[in-house]
Amino acid sequence: MTRFAPLLRHRLTQTIAIWLIAFGIYRFAIQPPIPSSLLTIYLGITTVVILLWVSSDDRGLNELKAPLTALFVERENRNVVGLRWLILILIPAFVGWQTYLRVVPRVEAPPELRSIHPAPPTTITFEGKTIDLQTAKNPFRDASGKPDAAALAAGKVVYGTHCVFCHGDALKANGIFADSLNPRPADFTDPGTIAQLQEGYLFWRIAKGGPGLPTEGKGWNSAMPGWEGTLKEEEIWQVILYLYDATGQHPREAGNQ
Amino acid sequence: MSRNRIALALIATVLTMVAAFTLAGPRTTRAAPSLAAEGKTIYAQRCEICHGENGDGKGPAAEIMFPKPRDFTFGEFKIRTTSSDSPPTDGDLIGVIGNGMPGSTMPAWKNVLSKDEIAAVAAYVKTFSDAFGGEAPQPIKAGNRVKPDGASVARGAQVFRDVQCFKCHGDAGRGDGPSALKLKDDYDNAIFPADLTQAWLFRGGGTANDIYMRIMTGMTGSPMPSFADALVDENGNPDEQKRWDLVNYVDSLSPDTAPEPQAAIILKPIDGDIPTEPAAVQWQSATLYYYPLVGEIMREPRDYTPSIKGVWVRGLYNSTDLGLLVQWDDRQQNTGAEGQPQDEIDVQFQTKVPEGAERPYFVYGDADHPVNLWTWTAGASVGVEQTGKGSDSVAPQAAQNLTTKSYYTAGRYSVVFRRSLNTGDAEDIALSSGVFVPIAFAASDGLRGETPGHGAISSWYQIYLGKPVPATNYVWIPVAVVVAAALEALLLWAVRRNAKRDA
Questions:
Q1: Rounded to an integer, what distance in angstroms lies between the CA atom of residue B66 and that of residue B185?
Q2: Mean pLDDT rounded to a whole number for chain A
Q3: Mean pLDDT along residues B359-379
Q4: How many C-beta atoms surround the C-beta of residue A211 within 10 A?
Q5: CB spacing of B357 vs A168 below 8 angstroms
Q6: Is the pLDDT of residue A149 over 60?
Q7: Pairing between strand B294-295 and B436-444?
Q8: Rounded to whole angstroms, how far apart are CA atoms B24 and A100?
Q9: What Cα–Cα distance (Å) separates residue B442 from each residue in A83, B271, B310, B458?
Q10: Would the CB atoms of B481 and A182 count as touching at under 8 Å?
Q11: pLDDT tens profile B45-67
Q12: B392 — phi, psi (to 5°)?
């Protein structure tokens, strides 16, 4: 320990150590991580303060200067001379590399901004019948909201024969087509999807699909097919029952904002 | 009680427990009734919809699937590490349930079920057949893998010819061999040999060890036999080098994982002409992009299991033209003879560069948002520009501006599309550098009766013609380096002068 004591008391060691600790705190200890621009500002201020502190007395200034001066003027020790050349070459190389990154722009695809749950229309026309989405109730639930067992079983079959290729057996958006779609299909086990919605909303999305989205939702670029014409009204309500039952989610009640 | 005594008591307890577990020995492979009973509940909830209540593979969802869900009552399983007359080990069943069967609708249940639950389902699956009644099946022993170097791969290629793998899997391994199209499995369902260049779709996994097991044990119920008897030396003894050489060759044909589809195809301008020959050397300098395709499931007859799984795309452009080399694997060239559907590929653009995020419907556009299609069909073997306003209203344009050239070899189509960046035709997408343009792909395979609108399709991605970087930009790099070096020299000089003065 005594061997290292002089080294620990040395101002250059202390300066580097304090700077590294400060960097460690800013970079890893602060959660959530701060943006890199803010990190640069914090580190800049820290560096100035450390330099002010270390140069506030002659001893500190000399201890800081001596090794750096030695690095620049040493002629005998080949290791130090080698280190000097290494530093002298690396700094312009780094500057050149940073300049290259700035003058040759990298291209990235623009993010696809989309509204996740666009506002539904108040009513839709399904097979010629007008359905009010605000008040629509699932006909296969009793007054307490309990699903009808036969309808639930039928809903599972509807799911398996129509939805499973994209939304997956586990309803986690892990069907065999899911990786090939952009955006991915909805993950029904995610609390941010069906748990936030009324059953009428689901009816609309299933019946009308991506093509039925309002203009502000089209950024969705959804591959969801409109199932009107393929599924009957009861089948859509049945599969909705299954979606909630299989994931353990509950629909948001009408009027409960 | 002293502290020592407590410690002693704890150690004694732990040792007793370790001894108890060790002496109890490994779990027996015969399905314990309680485990199977637990598996039955999970089976009813998760598996029945495809594999059926009675394990006969006739669940309500089975109809739309290809390959079909397994019928467990036969006791035949494709993915085994046991010899071809043996049922699979528990580990084999657990592996298939856990990892799923890539390229089929069997998902990886390890993402949903716990290890114990999977073991319970495996135990229940065994109750459907008498095949598991006997002794616990033992896995075959694989010799040490031969180093997969060039020499081994080259020897493996010879073995591939010697034992006639190409008859089904094709000369380049794309599943297009002369026998490939007439195969049926034991249940009389059509079945196609694996495309060995797409190992991420191998049902039993794409690692070298997986490939070894499939070749050596065969895939029972399918036309893939065990090659254990063919891969032997002159004296009829197992030839592990020959076996691993073949494995190394097959393994060399494909990466293990699917290429990641990139959000945008980003092209750099070139100086020379855009080649029209698919084999032209310039294409090799262009970045390769892969886009997976899905089935067009909305129009009857709905195609849940399209034949073409993905397209590979390369692009080149210069000041006047854009060229796209599109390649895809297809087991047979179908030119539309005798009224059969023909093979087709479409590159989709939106007719106008969109201003917002709004896109046309990805299946051939819609009435409000027409798409500009670059269509190539195998029959005419020429490219046609079409306008799509939905699946049912796709029509050739009056003015044609495309140049195409194509060839088909060893199970793969290669088609080059070349067009002027700006044709002046209002129905055509006008391309310019520095703009992201939505692009999508569709392919149909005549062999499986697919037609445009009843085939494989991708969702929207983007293509970007990169702006050339002005030469003057590069000047700043040496300037920055010289300035940095000059500042260093100045610092060095100043420090040394001060040091000399101090001394």
A1: 12
A2: 87
A3: 90
A4: 17
A5: no
A6: yes
A7: unpaired
A8: 66
A9: 59, 30, 9, 6
A10: no
A11: 999 999 999 999 999 999 888 88
A12: -90, -5
Give which of B171, B194, B191 is closest to B181, Cα–Cα: B191
Distance CA B174, CA B196 (A): 6
Q: How many CB atoms lie within 10 A of CB B340?
A: 12
Task: List the single residue in B266, B295, B481 with the smallest CB-CB distance to A165.
Answer: B295
| Helix runs in B303-456, H state only | none
Residues 6+ apart with CB under 8 A from B56: B71, B72, B73
Residue B437 DSSP label: E
What percentage of chain B reaches a pLDDT higher than 90? 66
Which residues touch A126 (CB under 8 Å, ≥6 apart)? A203, A207, A228, A233
CA separation, residue B157 to residues A2, B2, B225, B360 (Å): 67, 73, 19, 47
- Of the candidates B26, B99, B36, the one whose C-alpha atom is nearest the C-alpha of residue B72 is B36
Token readout for B293 is: 């395709």
* pLDDT number for residue B27: 43
pLDDT in tens, A175-192: 889 988 888 899 999 988
The answer to whether the peptide bond before residue A120 is cis (omega within 30 degrees of 0) is no
Whether residue A73 and residue B460 make contact (CB cut-off 8 A), yes or no, is no
The pLDDT assigned to A212 comes to 84
Burial of residue B338 (CB within 10 Å: 0-12, 13-18, 19+) is: exposed
Kindly indicate the confidence band of residue B33, based on its pLDDT and cuts at 50, 70 and 90.
low
Q: Is A181 on the interface with B (CB under 8 A)?
A: yes
In degrees and rounded to multiples of 5, residue B447 shows phi and psi of: -55, -40
User: B395 Cβ partners below 8 Å, 6+ apart?
Assistant: B386, B387
Rounded mean pLDDT, B257-275: 91
Q: What is the pLDDT at residue B23?
A: 46
Q: Under an 8 A CB cutoff, do A210 and B361 touch? A: yes
Segment holding B464, helix H or strand E? strand B461-465
- B132: DSSP letter: G
Strands B371-377 and A123-126: unpaired
In whole angstroms, give the CA distance from residue B250 to residue B231.
Answer: 15
- The string of DSSP codes covering A100-164 is HHHHS----PPP----SSPPPPSEEEETTEEEETTT---TTB-TT-PBPHHHHHHHHHHIIIIIH
The tokens 């009389």 sit on which residue? B188
Chain A interface, mutation test: which of B45, B106, B111, B112, most A Cβ atoms within 10 Å?
Answer: B112
Which structural domains are found in chain A, ordered by start? 5-103 (no CATH), 123-247 (1.10.760.10)
CB-CB contact of B63 with B53 (8 Å): no
Q: Scanning every residue of chain A, which has its alpha carbon at the shortest distance from the alpha carbon of B298?
A: A225
Please enumerate in sequence order all residues whose Cβ is within 8 A of that of A124, keeping only pairs 6 or more positions apart, or say none.
Answer: A130, A131, A133, A204, A207, A208, A212
A231 strand-pairing partners: A228
d(CA B225, CA B165): 11
Report the distance separating Cα A170 and Cα A188, nearest Å: 9
DSSP H or E run through B311? strand B310-317
Q: Which residue has the higher pLDDT, B9 or B151?
A: B151
Beta-carbon separation of A73 and B495 below 8 A: yes
Q: Is the separation of the CB atoms in B89 and B148 below 8 Å?
A: no
Residue A112 has pLDDT above 90, yes or no: no
Smallest CA-to-CA distance from A200 within A146, A255, A127 is with: A255
Closest CA to B330 of B415, B391, B265, B403: B415
Say if residue B344's pLDDT is above 90: yes
Q: Which two three-digit tokens encode residue B465?
A: 């013609």
How much of chain A, in percent, has pLDDT values that exceed 90? 42
A215 touches chain B (CB under 8 A): yes
Query: Which pTM does this prediction carry?
Result: 0.81
